[in-house]
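Summary of Year 1 activities. Much of the first year was spent building the evaluation harness for sequence design. The harness presents a backbone, in tokenized form, and records the residue chosen at every position. We chose the following record to illustrate the format because it has been used consistently in internal testing since the harness was completed.
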């Protein structure tokens, strides 16, 4: 018999983190613990990470759904769970149990080193240039810059300064606009950004404008990646419709927001058949969720840089074996998980 419980946990940022939508000081997340009453030594942990204002399942009944899932864990149909984040959390905890619980597989099962991009948060020019220098010293060759939160001309100045120092053969630049551009101004801005040899740009306009996005994908000098456009899409028909209508160069998969791992696998299969690239991105999860996404991405034998966090955003993250080795996310068998801070 399985027994499941959950606990709310507030992650605290090391410093304010700015996106085009908001400035973040803290972020709530929800941990799920599943025990096997017939084998008390095995415990599985998962994370249901809600992103306020972005997650389709950021609803008033979120904790009610969590309660229902925990009560019915022994006969739960995961595919029917209406919350993407909860689905992923349960998938993670059950997979963890299947592998013997967090303590065992994470001592002996090292994450294959997975190349990631360095994330540069929005700020003034000097702040962003300083952050870029730090990432380059750490060994990153692919950087992702959040844009759309400060003056566009200043953002162009930052990109110009980067390219004066580092050519595209040394440094790959990805941009994430988080839907900051209007459809009317988007193409002009993409044209101006393209002068700086940009690898790709995520979600230049807000989600839900498929025909406008399709036009951009056809005319943009920068390859476009869909991100928020995928959130809340549930059926295979809907997924195919979006891909066929928009025909993006890439899709960005956040399992927490895209229905969990099984649903994300379906996105990958659709993209593969249509010749569309993809990479995985974490969504400010704690180390528990980050670890699960990193292992899932590694299992797909990914080669291009993934958009995974490093576990270093928070002052009170869950202690884990995750570590950064240059631009590679991996794990260290000398370090163990510590769950003492979680109150179930």
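For this record, the design step produced the sequence shown next.
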């Amino acid at each position: 018999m399985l027994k499941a419980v959950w606990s709310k946990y507030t992650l605290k940022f090391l410093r304010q983190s700015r996106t085009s939508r908001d400035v973040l000081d803290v972020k709530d997340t929800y941990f799920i613990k599943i025990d096997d009453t017939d084998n008390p030594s095995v415990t599985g942990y998962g994370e249901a990470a809600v992103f306020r204002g972005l997650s389709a399942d950021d609803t008033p009944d979120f904790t009610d759904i969590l309660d229902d899932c925990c009560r019915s864990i022994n006969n739960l149909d995961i595919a029917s769970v209406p919350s993407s984040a909860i689905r992923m959390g349960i998938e993670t905890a059950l997979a963890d149990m299947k592998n013997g619980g967090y303590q065992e597989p994470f001592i002996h099962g090292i994450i294959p080193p997975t190349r990631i991009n360095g994330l540069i948060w929005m700020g003034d020019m000097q702040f962003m240039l300083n952050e870029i220098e730090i990432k380059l010293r750490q060994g990153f060759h692919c950087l992702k810059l959040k844009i759309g939160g400060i003056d566009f001309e200043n953002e162009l100045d930052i990109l110009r300064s980067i390219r004066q120092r580092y050519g595209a053969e040394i440094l790959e630049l990805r941009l994430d606009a988080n839907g900051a551009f209007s459809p009317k101004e988007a193409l002009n801005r993409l044209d101006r950004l393209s002068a700086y040899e940009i690898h790709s740009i995520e979600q230049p306009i807000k989600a839900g404008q498929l025909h406008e996005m399709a036009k951009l994908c056809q005319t943009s000098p920068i390859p476009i990646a869909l991100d928020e456009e995928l959130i809340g899409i549930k059926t295979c028909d809907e997924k195919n419709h979006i891909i066929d209508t928009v025909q993006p160069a890439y899709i960005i998969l956040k399992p927490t927001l895209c229905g969990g791992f099984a649903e994300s696998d379906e996105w990958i299969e659709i993209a593969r058949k249509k010749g569309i690239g993809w990479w995985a991105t974490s969504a400010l999860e704690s180390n528990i969720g980050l670890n699960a996404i990193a292992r899932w991405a590694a299992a797909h034998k990914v080669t291009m840089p993934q958009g995974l966090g490093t576990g270093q955003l928070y002052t009170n993250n869950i202690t884990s074996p995750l570590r950064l080795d240059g631009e590679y996310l991996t794990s260290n068998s000398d370090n163990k998980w510590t769950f003492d801070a979680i109150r179930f």
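Residues 103-108 have pLDDT under 50 and may be disordered. Quantitative recovery figures across the full test set are reported in Table 2.
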